[in-house]
Amino acid sequence: MKLSDLLEAAGPGPLRPVHLVNGGLTPINDVVIVDSACPPAAGQVILAVGLQLDTPAGRALIAESGATGAAAVVFRSTVTVNAVPGDTRTSVLLADAHIGWAQLLLLLRTLTSAAQDETATEFPDHPIPSSMHGLAEAIAVMVGGSVVLYDRAHRVIAYAVQGHEIDTVRRDAIIGKRTPEQWIKRFTIDRSAYQTFRNPDEVVRVDSYEEMRTRLRIAIHAGGEILGEISVAEGRQPLTSEAEEALKRAAALAAPFMLRHRIAEDTGRTAREQMLRGLLEGSPTLATHAINSGLDPHRGLTVVGFAVRTQDRTDATSAEVFTERLIHLLSLQVHSLDPAAGVLSIDGAYYAVVPALTPASHEQLVGRLRPALDQLHRLDIDTCAAVGRRATSLAEVPLSRSDVDDQLLVLARRGGSGVIGTKQQLWADLTLLPAERAIAAADPDLTEHLRRLTAHDQRHGTEFVKTLRTYLEVFGSTSAAAEQLVLHPNTLRHRLWRLAEISGIDLDDPAQRLALHLQLRAGSLPDELQP
User: Fold this and answer.
1) pTM summary value
2) Which of 116-130, 235-249, 323-337 is predicted most confidently?
3) Which of 117, 134, 400, 520 has its CB 3.0 to 4.6 Å from that of 303, i.e. a possible disulfide?
4) Bridge partner residues of 217 (DSSP)
């Protein structure tokens, strides 16, 4: 494989040549990370991790690489063409700033390995595919049957029918550019088609659905990361064991193509996520990008937050796949509000930045979000949403996000799902939150009374803290508290007297009652939200 072949295979996104020696015809045999203990060798592509071209160390690496016949040195895209001397004897490439070094190393090594892979010569009369659709066509020839290439969020990347009859499920996936939601749900519940994520090297045969022709599915993976799937639907001939073996070879052939596609997608997604994150943080450096994307703070923006209640996903891959799928679903929903709206995930919460050009459009958001939550509920994804204030400047966008975070905290305390929170609905709890946070950060000695009760409950199995909380929440009504606790009123009175005796609390003092109630509320704050 020559350097020019590698650049063509990688595509224009990840790498950009700024100085090519011999027109890029230098043979390459390995991709390595720069290591002071291992000098450059002939044919290597060297990733200059931690080095800058316009520094003595960077220039020394280029000189040494040229002297030993290394094919190329790759730097971050922070230099200009003029920074490369004209007499440089090795090619110099620039890596896109949004691509991690580990990801780039995996891509380049996968591409160089694939160039020598036996699967690349599966059909010597056909050229190696140059596009995702070409890849789908090649797999259809190898395996027999209509082919769909999916990414991890079940979106259709490419397909090939080649005259085979297709069922309605395949037709709907191709037309809608995604597996229909009812089938995603069905496959997930049945643990059928998506077993590819658990057994990435095995072919999964799906033949138990009357509405669907037999499928063969296999994951596409590289470097331990699942990139997507190949789904082959039975066509004119049955899918035999030979077809399964051919599909395994096809998955190996597909890996570099899917990796290149994934990195290109990641590059664009990362840039947009950085822009959205910058808006949420009020970063002025990304304001121009946001405006060009249709998210102009000065024309009005609103942050919408989503809290998702789902089953724990201990498997890292399934959790990551679920996050990608949910971001895609939420993106579809918020794009119906405005095509410029964007969604990202931060620390398990999901945020959408939505244009709100007028106060009236902001007020209509709650009603327009209801169908989105109903749709997610039908997919067994229970969600709460919160709408922040309308921001009319960059500095106000973080305040809108803060509104959302506080509302989601209140909704989490209340439990339930399918609720859309606003400041107007949750004003009482939101009013108390600053006081609760201040109390949580106050002198620990001020909580001595509650700590005594908590310690007693832990030692003796009593429920004094629960009793006190219930009593205060019903405004000191003995009958109402006794009913909630399923106690006789006299039993409750004795328990209140006893907890006052243990802790030193005076429940006849209104200031103490208020302070205790706030302390109890502050104690229920998540640790990460306490000052």
Assistant:
1) 0.60
2) 235-249
3) 400
4) 204, 231
Task: Give yes or no for a contact between 201 and 246, defined as CB atoms under 8 angstroms apart.
Answer: no
Q: What is the pLDDT of residue 347?
A: 85
pLDDT reported for residue 144: 87
Q: Are 33 and 47 in contact (CB under 8 A)?
A: yes
Q: Is 445 helix (H, G, I), strand (E, B) or coil?
A: helix
Q: List CB contacts of 124: < 8 A, sequence separation 6 or more.
A: none
Shortest CA distance to 261 belongs to which of 159, 136, 157?
157
Q: Which fold has domain 438-529?
A: Arc Repressor Mutant, subunit A (1.10.10)
Decide yes or no: CATH 3.30.450.40 for domain 124-262: yes
Q: How far is CA 204 from CA 181, 191, 232, 488, in A?
A: 20, 11, 11, 62
Task: Give, in words, the CATH class of 288-425.
Answer: alpha beta
Domain range summary for the chain, segments of one domain joined by +: 3-115, 124-262, 288-425, 438-529
The side-by-side arrangement of strands in the sheet containing 15-19 is: 15-19, 91-95, 72-76, 44-47, 30-33
Domain 3-115 CATH assignment equals 3.30.43.10: no
- What CA–CA distance (Å, rounded) separates 311 from 36? 47
Residues in the chain: 531
pLDDT, position 111: 75
Q: Which pLDDT belongs to residue 522?
A: 82
Supply the DSSP symbol for 402.
Answer: H
For residue 64, pLDDT over 50 is answered with: yes
In angstroms, how far is CA 139 from the centroid of its own chain? 30
Residues sharing a CB contact under 8 Å with residue 167, sequence separation 6 or more, in sequence order:
211, 212, 213, 233
Task: Please answer whether residues 308 and 350 qualify as being in contact, where contact means their C-beta atoms are separated by less than 8 angstroms.
Answer: yes
Residue written as tokens 């000098």? 39
| Contact between residue 297 and residue 396 where contact means Cβ atoms under 8 Å apart | yes
Question: What value does the mean pLDDT of the chain take?
Answer: 85
